[in-house]
Write a structure and sequence with these properties.
The protein is an alpha+beta fold and 398 residues long. The chain is built from 12 helices and 22 strands. Among the domains are: 168 residues, no CATH class; 32 residues.
Amino acid sequence: MRGPSETIDIEAKEDINITNVKRYVTTKDSNRTKNENKTKKIKLKPIKELSKHHHNIKEILQWSNTTPIHGRSDLGYLCCYCTEKFPIPADLKTHTLLLHKNDSNPKFLQKRDLKKYHVKVDITNLKCDICKTNIQNIEDLIDHLRKNHYKKIYTDIKNHIVGFKFEGSNSNELRCAVCSNVYTKFKILFEHMHRHSNNYICEECGSGFINNRALLNHQKRHNIGEFKCEHCEKVFDNLHKKNSHVTTVHVHGYLLNKCGYCNQKFAGYRTKAEHLRTAHGITERAICQACEKSFATKDSLNKHVKRHHLMDYRYSCTLCDMKFHANKSLEEHMVKHTKTRSFQCRVCFKRYGRQQTLKEHMRIHDNDRRFKCEHCVMAFVQKCSWRRHMQAKHDEHV
């Protein structure tokens, strides 16, 4: 049996323990309050713009049949995930959807320069993977995914995604997905797509561009003055012409056209096309999708399309109703009205209105019979003479 003093001592100890517990709880609560205040004061770092672009394209590729295109070479369209190449874009699309649909590291995500950032994608027969709805373009797809499926896609940034459609009887034709203009090279079509973008606008001429780097390169054309080449005595009236001259002449030595099969370089597209035909058996002719005319080279088809089908005639003759897509063509046309003969032959002193006509004339003095008949030994200086011969002697229209 405990005495009174023992009871008092026990109660006193309990009071001390309770006090300690209260003091501990109070201290813990105050620390928690301080930590909560600290948490409230921490500001989340803003997401960088490039990260938003990467997030958006990942969402688009995950929830639709959109497929990225790394580029185009002689060997075909390049896969964004591996080293495979496909002459037909539909084959690249099938390859990508089957083998790389869940791959998370396409090549364009490695880009870290926002000024040059853009992504080329195939949006042929574009569909939402969630509800199988047909979509017309990337902008509509983004709107659809946000409103119908509540996907997080940033809309406070400029759209650097460029969509291409490969449709029609010829799935390999290069037709603009916006205005339906037809082009002969994937690179030219991509350059044309800048027209449909309002991301960056040139203040001088109002032209639009997908990214800032393209705008800066374009603005060099408006930088008028005297720009001397660092390697020779030539002087140019704008920086763009000077830089193009340095790259073409002094850096690459006129050899800008590289074969995709053997990496051999050529001065012009025609010599490269001939190399592809003789060395690699590539004999595909370029066919106009508007009138089905056939051309030996894509360069010839490109000129044909610009002159007869694009209807983009900015330059008008002030003396007649003729219109032209290039200022140079207008200047050549004006010779008909002015009758000026500025180009003289150094051999027979005949004068011509156009430099190209003089060059063709000079082949007579050089005995340059470049147009050879495939059926006999005849050869001709002028193409028109060769055509007449082929029709009259061999009943072949060329």
